[in-house]
UniProtKB/TrEMBL annotation:
<keyword id="KW-0251">Elongation factor</keyword>
<dbReference type="InterPro" id="IPR008991">
    <property type="entry name" value="Translation_prot_SH3-like_sf"/>
</dbReference>
<comment type="pathway">
    <text>Protein biosynthesis; polypeptide chain elongation.</text>
</comment>
<dbReference type="InterPro" id="IPR011768">
    <property type="entry name" value="Transl_elongation_fac_P"/>
</dbReference>
<dbReference type="InterPro" id="IPR013852">
    <property type="entry name" value="Transl_elong_P/YeiP_CS"/>
</dbReference>
<dbReference type="InterPro" id="IPR012340">
    <property type="entry name" value="NA-bd_OB-fold"/>
</dbReference>
<comment type="similarity">
    <text>Belongs to the elongation factor P family.</text>
</comment>
<dbReference type="InterPro" id="IPR014722">
    <property type="entry name" value="Rib_uL2_dom2"/>
</dbReference>
<keyword id="KW-0648">Protein biosynthesis</keyword>
<feature type="domain" description="Elongation factor P C-terminal">
    <location>
        <begin position="195"/>
        <end position="250"/>
    </location>
</feature>
<keyword id="KW-0963">Cytoplasm</keyword>
<dbReference type="Pfam" id="PF01132">
    <property type="entry name" value="EFP"/>
</dbReference>
<dbReference type="Pfam" id="PF09285">
    <property type="entry name" value="Elong-fact-P_C"/>
</dbReference>
<protein>
    <submittedName>
        <fullName>Elongation factor P</fullName>
    </submittedName>
</protein>
<dbReference type="InterPro" id="IPR020599">
    <property type="entry name" value="Transl_elong_fac_P/YeiP"/>
</dbReference>
<dbReference type="GO" id="GO:0043043">
    <property type="term" value="P:peptide biosynthetic process"/>
</dbReference>
<dbReference type="InterPro" id="IPR013185">
    <property type="entry name" value="Transl_elong_KOW-like"/>
</dbReference>
Length: 251
């Protein structure tokens, strides 16, 4: 007796989820009709379906908590101590003749600007501050505040002059910088490593043997003073390393 298997798709009520009935049919011996019997259902997990765009559940935003060894501390490490974010600006691994080894650090508080010295036992676990960076453009100075803008959303972010510090001398309107966020608040920013700035003042009467690598002070458009080679003239643009404040090249 011949048998036939038929796949009949249908949907789970109220969900829009597809499932399949597998139906077996065979001819009836007493008549010319065909009898059907539903035998099984395929698992729902074997079918892929699409929902409404944008309606996928979002994972809860959990704080990132990382820990690293004090042996891995370096200049620029971001650590969280007593609920505050700190940046390591100096460190020294100490191995005394007697007693346990330790790491001596000098750290700056991102929020208050205070600098303290703190020691950590060698190999101890330290919590890393959950700090992330986003590129924003410095647009203008509003009194004692420096205004940065997100060019996509046009949202403004402000830093006080005390937060900017001596980095102001390299800051130029229209410059892209990395803002540092901690708990959704701006706490600091990083300048580009190299910046192009125009020379607005230089002593034209200063002469020297350029082959001997002589230099002279030049005032830049931001007010910074940099030693430049003798061949650099007023009105020219130069490249400066913002980390060291040194002249790199002429544009």
């Amino acid at each position: 007796m011949a048998q036939t298997f038929v796949s009949c798709p249908s949907y789970l009520p109220g969900t829009g989820t597809r499932m399949t009935h597998v139906v077996k049919s065979w001819p009836c011996a007493c008549s010319s009709s065909t009898r059907y019997s539903s035998l099984s259902f395929s698992p729902l997990s074997t079918f892929r379906f699409r929902g409404v765009p944008g309606t996928a559940p979002r994972r809860p935003a959990l704080p990132k908590i990382y820990a690293f060894s004090s042996n891995d501390i370096k200049v620029g490490s971001n650590v969280e101590v007593d609920g505050a974010p700190w940046r390591v600006i100096e460190f020294l691994h100490v191995k005394p003749g007697k007693g346990a080894a330790y790491v001596r650090t000098t750290m700056r508080n991102y929020v208050t600007g205070n600098t303290v010295e703190k020691t950590f036992r060698a190999g101890s676990k330290i919590e890393e501050a959950d700090i992330f960076k986003e590129t924003k453009q410095f647009t203008y100075k509003d009194g004692p505040q420096f205004v940065f803008m997100d060019l996509t959303t046009y949202e403004e972010y402000r830093l006080n002059a005390s937060d900017v510090g001596d980095k102001e001398k390299w800051l130029k309107e229209g410059m892209d910088c990395n803002l540092l966020f901690w708990k959704d608040k701006v706490i600091d920013f990083d300048l580009p490593i190299n910046v192009k700035l125009k020379v607005v003042e230089v002593d034209p009467g200063l002469r020297g043997d350029t082959a001997q690598g002589g230099s002279k002070p030049a005032t830049l458009e931001t007010g910074a003073i940099v030693n430049v080679p003798l061949f650099v003239e007023k009105g020219q643009e130069i490249v400066v390393d913002t980390r060291s404040g040194q002249y790199m090249s002429r544009v």
